[in-house]
Amino acid sequence: MLTLYGNLESGNVYKVRLLLSWLGLPHRRVEVNQVRGEPMSPAFRAINPIGKVPALRLGDGRVLTESGSILYFLAQGTAWWPADRWDQAGVLRWMFFEQYSHEPAIAVNRYLLRFAGELSSFDAERIRFNDARGRHALQVMEDHLAGAEWLVGSGPTIADIALYAYTHVADEGGFELAAYPAVGRWLARVAALPGHVGLLDETSARPVERLVAG
Amino acid sequence: MLTLYGNLESGNVYKVRLLLSWLGLPHRRVEVNQVRGEPMSPAFRAINPIGKVPALRLGDGRVLTESGSILYFLAQGTAWWPADRWDQAGVLRWMFFEQYSHEPAIAVNRYLLRFAGELSSFDAERIRFNDARGRHALQVMEDHLAGAEWLVGSGPTIADIALYAYTHVADEGGFELAAYPAVGRWLARVAALPGHVGLLDETSARPVERLVAG
C-alpha cells in the first residue's frame, strides 16, 4: 500500500490526496505536522532530505517527493496527464506557475495569517508584498478561465489539481475570491468531479500514525 | 526559426539558451529586460500574460512559457529527458525543488544584491531570510552530489540545466560556493559539456531586437 507523509492542512499534501482519490488508489497516512516543524525533523529528513511534505512511499519502498513530481508519476497512463506533447508542456507550465508565482504568495499568506501565530513586522511586510503577487496570479488564472473550462485542453488534468489546492482556500490568505468569478466557477467544477475529497476529509485507509512522537 | 524573449542575465532564460545550444537549435533573441521592468509591459504580456521571461515562440507561432515547461518540451525524444518513468519523476522533482526552494532564495538574493540598486530595510530582511533558505538548498544539492555525478541517472538531464543556471552564479547572491565542493565539481562537469555557452555569451543567430523601445 502507498504511504503518504504529511498533514491534512497542507495544500501540497492535498494535491496528492485528491489524485489518489480520483485514481482509486488507497493509501495510509503518516502525520508530519508543518506547524510543529516536523518536516525538518531528522526522522522526516531521512525520508525526504529537503524537509518538505508531501512524500509518498511506494509499495516497493521507493520514495517520491515534491507534489508536482508525485502528481506526474501517478498520472502517467491516465487521463490526468494528456497524451499530446504540447498539452503536456501546458500542464507543466501551470504547475511551475503554481509553485513559483502562486503558492509562495497565496499559500504563504494563508500560513502566516492562519497558522503562524504572532507575526513579526517582517511577516507583516511579507504579507503586503505577497498580497500583490497573489492577486496578480489569481488575475492570470481569471483571464485564462474566462475562456476555458479547464486549465489545459477539454478535461481536468493534474494542472487543475495543482492550482485547485491552494486557490480554493485563498480566502484564508486574505484573497477575495468573489473578485475572480471565472476562477470561482472553475473551483466549483473541480469540486463537483466524482471522487472529490475535501481538504480536511481524512482518506487514510488505516489509522493515522505520527512520525514524530509528542 | 525559434524566437527567445528575455535578457542574457536571467538564469531562467539561460536554461533555455543552454538547452538550445546543446540540441543545436538556432534561435533569434528579442531583448526583454528585467531590470527595466519590461516583462510586465503590455507588449510582453501579450506574449506571456504572466509577465515573466523566458518565452519561446516556435516556428508555427505558438508560444511556450515557464522555463521548466520549455525545457520539458524541447527535451522530448532526446537524452536530456530520460525514458524511464521513475527517472522522469526524479528530473521533475529537482526542477520543482529549483523553482520552489532554490531560485526564490538564491536568484532573488543575486537580483537584490547585484541589480536592484538601493535596498529598503524590507529588502535587507529578505536577503537574510533568503540566505538561510539558499544555504539549505545548496546543502541538499551537496549531500546528493557527494554520491552522484549528475542529479538523475548516469548522464546530464534538464534537471542539471535547471539547477546549474543560478547555482553557478550563487556567489553573486552572497553564497560561498567553496563550502559545497561536490556542487563545485558538478558545476565543472556541466561547464565542460561540449556546446556549453556562458551566461553572457550571445548565441542569437540574428541581431538582437528590443521588444520595448527605449
Task: Report what the structure shows.
Two copies of one chain form a homodimer. Chain A is an alpha/beta fold and 214 residues long. The first copy, chain A, has two domains: 2-79 and 196-210, Glutaredoxin; 85-191, Glutathione S-transferase Yfyf (Class Pi), Chain A, domain 2 (Up-down Bundle). Chain A is 48% helix and 8% strand. Chain A has helices at 11-23, 42-45, 67-75, 85-114, 121-145, 158-167, 181-191, and strands spanning 2-5, 27-31, 55-57, 63-65, 209-210. The first copy, chain A, has a five-stranded mixed sheet with strand order 4-3-1-2-5, covered by helices on one side. In chain A, strand 1, helix 1 (11-23) and strand 2 (27-31) form a beta-alpha-beta unit. In chain A, helix 4 (85-114) runs parallel beside helix 6. The mean pLDDT of chain A is 97. At the A-B interface, helix 3, helix 4 and helix 5 of A face helix 3, helix 4 and helix 5 of B.
Task: List descriptors.
homodimer; 214 residues; alpha/beta; Glutaredoxin; Glutathione S-transferase Yfyf (Class Pi), Chain A, domain 2; 2 domains; five-stranded mixed beta sheet; 7 helices; 5 strands; 48% helix; 8% strand; globular
Q: What is the SS-derived class of chain A?
A: alpha/beta
Helix content bin of chain A: 40-55%
List unreliable stretches of 5+ residues of chain A: none
* Total beta strand runs of chain A: 5
Q: What is the CATH class name of the largest domain in chain A?
A: Mainly Alpha
H and E string of chain A: EHEHEEHHHHHE
Widest β-sheet, arrangement of strands of chain A: 4-3-1-2-5
The greatest inter-chain interface is formed by: A-B, 37 and 37 residues
Give the termini separation of chain A. Answer: 26 Å
Mean pLDDT score of chain A = 97
